[in-house]
Design a protein that fits this description.
This protein is mainly beta. The chain is about 10% helix and about 25% strand.
Length: about 270
C-alpha cells in the first residue's frame, strides 16, 4: 500500500508542476521582452529622430545631376578644368555639348579638390576607332590625382567591345589591380556611363595607411567593381603603393595611343561625408 500511495503522490506532483508551468507560459505569452533593467521594451527605444537628413531633389532622370551636385561639365565650357601639367586653362575642344581629348594638350583635371564623392561621367569611343588592345580608345578616369602626369588612382577607359587585352587593363578595371566583374561595353559610337562611389584613403600622421581607398563602380548601370579596397596608386610598371594626401583633383587622361581621341559629356559630382 505504501508503494501505491507513493506512486500516486509522485503523479499528483508531476501534474501540478505541469499545470503551473502552463499557467506561467500563458501569463507571459504576448508580453514584450524586458530591457536589461527589467522594464518592458518599447518601440520608441530603437527610434532615432535626429539628425534629420537634408533634402536633395533628384534629377529628372538618373543621369541628370541632383540638387546638391557640383557640375564639372555641362557641355558649355571647360571652366571647371585645368591642364594637369601647369594648371593653365584646359586645352581640350568643346563642340555640340561634348568635350574631346586633345592628346597634344595632355591630361586635364578639376580645379577643385575632393575627398570622398559620388561621380557621374559619360564617355564615347569614336565610331571610326582604329587599333587594337591598349591602342584602341585608351584613356582613364583618375578618381584622385595627387601628383603630376598619370599619378593617382585610375579606373580604366578603353574600347573593350570585341577588343582583347589583359583583363586588369580593360574598360572598367581598376588599372592593374582589379578585373571588372563583367564587360558591360557598348559599341563604339554609343555613349558609355560610369557611376562611381569613391571613398578616399585615410592616413596616419606618419603617412602609413589607416584605411585604404574603396571604389564601387557601375558601367552602363551594371555593377563592375563592388567596394574594392585599392592597393595604392596606379602603376604601369611595378606594384601599387600609397602616398599620403588630403584632397585631390579628379583627372581625365589624354593617352598617347595613335587611335582617334575619345569624348566626354555630362560630368557631375556629389561630395560625401
Amino acid at each position: 500500500m505504501r508503494t501505491h500511495h507513493l506512486k500516486v503522490l509522485k503523479l499528483t506532483l508531476a501534474i501540478s508542476t505541469f499545470a503551473l508551468l502552463g499557467a506561467s507560459t500563458q501569463q507571459t505569452a504576448g508580453q514584450k521582452p524586458a530591457t536589461p533593467g527589467g522594464q518592458q521594451a518599447k518601440p520608441e527605444d530603437t527610434e532615432v529622430w535626429e539628425p534629420v537628413p537634408k533634402i536633395v531633389t533628384p534629377g529628372a532622370t538618373n543621369d541628370k545631376p541632383p540638387s546638391d551636385a557640383i557640375i564639372l561639365f555641362d557641355g558649355k565650357n571647360l571652366d571647371q578644368w585645368v591642364n594637369t601639367r601647369d594648371k593653365s586653362p584646359a586645352g581640350w575642344t568643346v563642340a555640340n555639348g561634348v568635350m574631346t581629348v586633345d592628346k597634344k594638350a595632355g591630361n586635364i583635371e578639376t580645379k577643385r579638390s575632393f575627398r570622398s564623392y559620388q561621380l557621374h561621367l559619360e564617355w564615347r569611343i569614336p565610331e571610326e576607332i582604329t587599333g587594337s588592345g591598349q591602342a584602341r580608345g585608351n584613356s582613364g578616369l583618375f578618381l584622385a590625382s595627387p601628383g603630376p602626369g598619370d599619378a593617382g588612382y585610375e579606373l580604366q577607359i578603353l574600347d573593350s567591345y570585341e577588343n582583347k587585352t589583359y583583363v586588369n587593363g580593360q574598360a572598367g578595371s581598376v588599372y592593374k589591380q582589379y578585373i571588372p566583374l563583367v564587360n558591360a561595353m557598348k559599341k563604339p559610337g554609343e555613349w558609355q556611363i560610369y557611376d562611381v562611389v569613391w571613398t578616399a584613403p585615410v592616413f596616419k600622421a606618419d603617412g602609413s595607411v589607416e584605411t585604404p581607398a574603396h571604389l564601387t563602380a557601375f558601367h552602363n548601370g551594371v555593377l563592375i567593381q563592388n567596394h574594392v579596397a585599392l592597393k595604392g596608386e596606379t602603376r604601369y610598371i611595378g606594384a601599387p603603393e600609397y602616398k599620403k594626401y588630403d584632397t585631390a583633383p579628379i583627372k581625365l587622361q589624354a593617352h598617347g595611343d595613335p587611335s582617334p581621341p575619345i569624348s566626354f559629356r555630362n560630368i557631375w559630382v556629389r561630395e560625401l561625408p
